[in-house]
Amino acid sequence: MPHNDTRQTAWVIGIATLLRLLVAAALPFGIDESYAIVIGRTLSLSYFDHPPAVFWLAHAAALLGGESPLALRWPFVLLFALTSWLLYRLTSRLFGSRAGFWAVCAAQCIPVFSLSGGSWVLPDGPLLFASMAAALALSYAVALHSEPPLDGVATAANESRWFAWIALGLALGLAGLAKYHAALLGLGVSVFVVSDSISRNPASRRWLMRPAPYVAVLIAMLCVAPVFIWNAEHDWASFRFQAGRANGQGRSVTALLQNIAGQAGYVFPWFWVPLVVLLARGLRTGTRDRATWFCVCLGAAPVLVFTLASLGGRAGLPHWPAPGFFMLLPLLGAAVARWEQRAPSTAPRRMAMAGGVFALLLTIVVTHAATGWMTAVVPSLHRRDPAFELLEYRSLRDTLEARGLLRGRRYVAVTDWMRGAKIGYALGPQYPILVMNDDARHFRFTNDNPSLHGTDGLLIVKVNTATPDSASRLAAAPYQSLFDSVRFVTSVPVLRGVDTAMVVSVFTATNLRKVWPPVSRQ
């Protein structure tokens, strides 16, 4: 029976988007999301952790609809729907519409794409959209398509295809505004254009002698100019921070195994293994299969770079290679389409099972984040619960407001950036967050506000749940010199449901003398 692949793909994207919106409304913000929201309240050319796209987008979403989870996440959900459609278009162009349908289905079932990249307030969503837009534009710029030429002989494009090259430059520029992974995407584009020109007939080499590719590079560089300007004004702080994240002190083999296990967990083993096999086959085949080589060039760099970097002794974060795997999804879609031809009922059934597993795990995460029910099943989670990242601080806000402790206070000081992100989101934009720690991330640059010097605020310090109030007073000792006086007020439980998830001590801080750490500028 023939398939209407375009219609089926639209239905898959539509249904997945609606489900993603429901999850976006129900799931509390994680630490990184809260951080992006709080930092994004102040517009800047760029930021310490990442280029500005996620912070700008969060700022715009908050202006439009406030700071509820749905109001801030819906642009990222919509962006992933568009990304999925671009994935279908690209895969259909390379391998046929049925492959495009299966590539989109896989993208909806992989958590690192469908959940964190597809709905959370993180830089990954804009990066995936820009990367797929760049890939599709490049496929037009170099006349790459799945249909064989009428004469049976591959021919090079005979025109400059200015629109496609300009679109490629804009897409690469947007990727550069989203995340520093864009440098690896640009490397992949360059490798494909150069290797394809060398390996094919002489007409293909004329691409490199035309102005269009270089105009695309110029457009991309102009787009990312804000990132370079901000870094130049702040002693290249962001570049230095990201460059140092690969350094580690652990054993290289252990770090590599941890890295691989993290990748497989984030992508799911039943998708990760085929993607790795397809990548290896594509590297071995090289330029002989042009469409496969196209995907390999665009996807290999993040996978190889961040996997091999773990040999330096640090496993890194499991989602770092993910943009590379996303660019390999057309290969996976083509493989599933071939499998479907051999076993018409098996492939759809296995994909449906993968979707069911993802839905089940997502249900567990959402319900546990709201209630903490899994701690009754797994008692060890009381000590180290990953869902603490999704913990809301509404009970802290309610207590501070009920006791009038925020009245007359100009700021809230905290002892680490993660606590600052969660508390800053809970309290709202009217209370600036000061992070009294050497690792203050972008708070370091928002702290530099002379108008706060000499004013009063609150100091909030996390303490052990069993710590008595008499001992909690000692928690503020390292920060006494930053104020004229610091006085203990109370300990406040942060609740998840009716259970105490953690406890913080609240101090009144009088007459801010200096912030910590100081800002370094050229």
Summarize the structure.
The chain has about 525 residues and is of the alpha/beta class. The chain has helices at about 5-25, 30-40, 55-65, 70-95, 95-110, 110-120, 125-140, 160-180, 180-200, 210-225, 225-235, 235-245, 250-265, 270-285, 290-310, 320-325, 330-340, 345-370, 375, 395-400, 415-425, 445, 470; strands at about 410-415, 435, 455-465, 485-495, 500-510. It has a 5-stranded mixed β-sheet with strand order 2-1-3-5-4.
Summarize this structure as a short list of keywords or feature phrases:
5-stranded mixed beta sheet; 5 strands; globular; alpha/beta; 522 residues
What would you say this structure looks like, in words?
There is one protein chain. 58% of the residues lie in helices and 8% in strands. Strand 1 (412-414), helix 21 (417-427) and strand 2 form a beta-alpha-beta unit. The chain has 23 helices and 5 strands. It has 522 residues and is an alpha/beta fold.
